[in-house]
Design brief:
The chain is α/β, with parallel strands linked by helices. The chain has 2 domains: 6-183 and 219-245, Rossmann fold (3-Layer(aba) Sandwich), CATH 3.40.50; 187-217, no CATH class. The chain has helices spanning 15-26, 38-50, 65-79, 102-130, 150-170, 188-196, 201-210, 220-230; strands at residues 6-10, 30-35, 55-59, 82-87, 133-138, 175-182, 242-245. β4, α4 and β5 (133-138) form a beta-alpha-beta unit. 45% of the residues are buried.
Length: 251
């Protein structure tokens, strides 16, 4: 369709990013899945296309300025100017503070915060030109503090301040910015947390669910549903918000 909007989802090859990409495609958007793993990105894009949607997968390092610029240019050429951006790309390098290396700190802050900055800066010009845009950033309940994740917690807390500032700066141009802060979501990434704790993943999930009021852990589709709302026309008066999606209230 001529007026089809284009969305970019970083870390879109699998897990939460893939679920968001599929949901946005089902909502009628053309979707570019950007991921450091080219195979994951193209595979997920192919599954969207097979389901009747429009999608491409591209390899990108969100922490690299030139890689980001090239990817956004390719998306614009192949799908049209992007006016929805989901900054989902992330990594874990968990460790206690006294064991954490400088590389572990720099890599996590680089992917999460530098990556969101570079992507948002590159895409915002298309949104401002269109006088319409939606930026959805992935924070985490770990932003409130979590043992063994001083780097990740700092990055995700930073993402919240980043989001609120984008909302202030870009609001006059018809662009909203909101953040989703998931609780425990069942993904390959959280499986690494279970491994760090030396627990079988099923046992880890079962134990975690006991402390969640709805008595289950989250699924990627739970996050995709919220991203769908934040990216919608109907969310035009919602900006600068952080929504915890954790199966219950968090302090």
């Amino acid at each position: 369709m001529a007026d089809q909007k284009t969305a970019i989802v970083t870390g879109g090859g699998r897990g939460i990013g893939a679920a968001i990409g599929k949901r946005l495609a089902a909502d009628g958007l053309a979707v570019a899945l950007l991921d450091l793993n080219d195979d994951d990105a193209t595979s997920t894009a192919a599954s969207i296309t097979e389901a009747g949607g429009k999608a491409i997968g591209l390899k990108v390092d969100v922490a690299d300025e030139q890689s980001v610029a090239s990817a956004v240019a390719a998306v614009t050429e192949q799908l049209g100017a992007p006016t929805v951006l989901v900054n989902n790309a992330g990594i874990l390098r968990d460790n206690l503070l006294f064991k954490m290396s400088v590389d572990d700190w720099d890599m996590v802050l680089g992917v999460h915060l530098r990556g969101a900055f570079l992507m948002s800066r590159e895409v915002q010009k298309h949104m401002v030109e269109a006088k319409w845009g939606r930026i959805v950033n992935l924070s985490s309940s770990s932003a409130l503090g979590n043992r063994g994740q001083v780097n990740y917690a700092a990055a995700k807390a930073g993402m919240q301040g980043f989001t609120k500032t984008l909302a202030i700066e870009l609001g006059p141009f018809g662009v909203t910015a909101n953040a989703i802060a998931p609780g425990l979501i069942q993904t390959a990434m959280t499986e690494t947390t279970a491994a760090r704790l030396k627990m079988p993943f099923d046992d880890f999930l079962a134990e975690a669910s006991k402390g969640i009021p709805v008595r289950r852990v989250g699924q990627p589709d739970d996050i995709a549903a919220v991203a769908s709302f934040f990216a919608s026309e109907g969310a035009g008066f919602v900006s600068g918000q952080v929504l915890y999606v954790a199966g219950g209230p968090l302090d």
